[in-house]
Amino acid sequence: MSYALTIVERPAYLHFVVTGINNRVTVERYLADIGRECAARGCRHILVEERLAGPRLDTTDVYLIASGQATAVARTLAAIACVDVNAAGRLMQFAEDVAVNRAVPVKVFATAPEAERWLVGLSS
């Protein structure tokens, strides 16, 4: 497996930390694992903190991932906060735009504390 997924239970959400090699297959696999984990735990609010190493994905891969995972995720989750600690430029904003246009409740943040404040605010 080219990645590791760590799950930390918080009172208002699940915090997923993903480490490993950055590529389209890794991202698609960890998103599928997150979906299964959320379904098993009945979780509707998540924070995904991506810490993948290597070159950033290109725009086409980001588009395909954001649009391909959108349908399944939109049906099961109420809020997704995303942080890519190695993000550069506006690629994560592009991913958010693609997903939101497909009714996925996602928001991109620069840091995990910002994402956490948003998620906790939703449940207060």
Can you offer a commentary on this structure?
- The protein is an alpha/beta fold and 124 residues long.
- The protein has one domain (18-108).
- Helices cover 46% and strands 27% of the residues.
- It contains five helices and five strands; from the N terminus they run E-E-H-E-H-H-E-H-E-H.
- The protein has helices at residues 24-41, 59-68, 70-76, 91-100, 112-123, and strands at 3-9, 14-21, 45-53, 79-84, 106-109.
- The chain has a five-stranded mixed beta sheet, sandwiched between helices.
- The longest helix is centred in the N-terminal third of the chain and has 18 residues, at 24-41.
- The protein is globular and about 35 Å long.
- The mean pLDDT is 89.
Task: Please supply descriptive tags for the structure shown above.
5 helices, 124 residues, five-stranded mixed sheet, 27% strand
Structural class computed from helices and strand pairing: alpha/beta
Please, how many domains? Answer: 1
> How is the main sheet built?
5 strands, mixed
H/E series, N to C? EEHEHHEHEH
Indicate the low-confidence ranges by residue numbers. Answer: none
Mean pLDDT across the residues is: 89
Give me a quick take on this structure.
This protein is of the alpha/beta class. It is built from five helices and five strands; from the N terminus they run E-E-H-E-H-H-E-H-E-H. The chain has one domain.
